[in-house]
Amino acid sequence: MDHSSVEEKSAVCCCEGDKAEVESGNCCCGERKTVRSSEEKKELTIRINRIAGQLGGVKRMVEEDKYCEDVLVQLAAVDKAVRSLTALILTRHMHRCIVRDVQSGDVDALDGVAELFKRFI
């Protein structure tokens, strides 16, 4: 992925706080935020909807007593799609959020990345 395409967007805080707070990744209420472009949201939503559709198909297969091996093949496809989405979001997180945090002096953000890798690897 070309991380230069990860776009920082301006936004207002969920509780109408300072725009700079949101851009720094923190809302005035203390909630951490990732501001995504409408294009990125659309791309992620399409992928999530596709995964939800795949899971719906697996549910129907179970309800229709489809052969276990066929269900397992579809579950493997769902697993691969979820892992792909996870990798995409993790990559964007590192290129956007972690870079921003480290540049602002928060090197503890690297510990958060290490914890994420422990979860997903």
Account of the protein in words:
This protein is mostly helical. The protein has one domain: Metal-sensitive repressor, helix protomer (Methane Monooxygenase Hydroxylase, Chain G, domain 1), CATH 1.20.58. The chain is built from four helices and no strands. The chain has helices spanning 19-23, 38-63, 68-103, 109-120. Helix 2 runs antiparallel to helix 3. It is elongated, with a radius of gyration of 18 Å. Residues 1-13 have low confidence and may be disordered.
Q: TL;DR?
A:
The chain has one domain: Metal-sensitive repressor, helix protomer (Methane Monooxygenase Hydroxylase, Chain G, domain 1, Up-down Bundle), CATH 1.20.58.1000. The chain has four helices and no strands.
Distance between the termini: 20 Å
Number of strands: 0
Q: Which architecture does the CATH hierarchy give at level 2?
A: Up-down Bundle
Number of helices: 4
CATH topology tier name: Methane Monooxygenase Hydroxylase, Chain G, domain 1
Which structural class fits the helix and strand makeup? mainly alpha
Rg result: 18 Å
Low-confidence stretches: 1-13
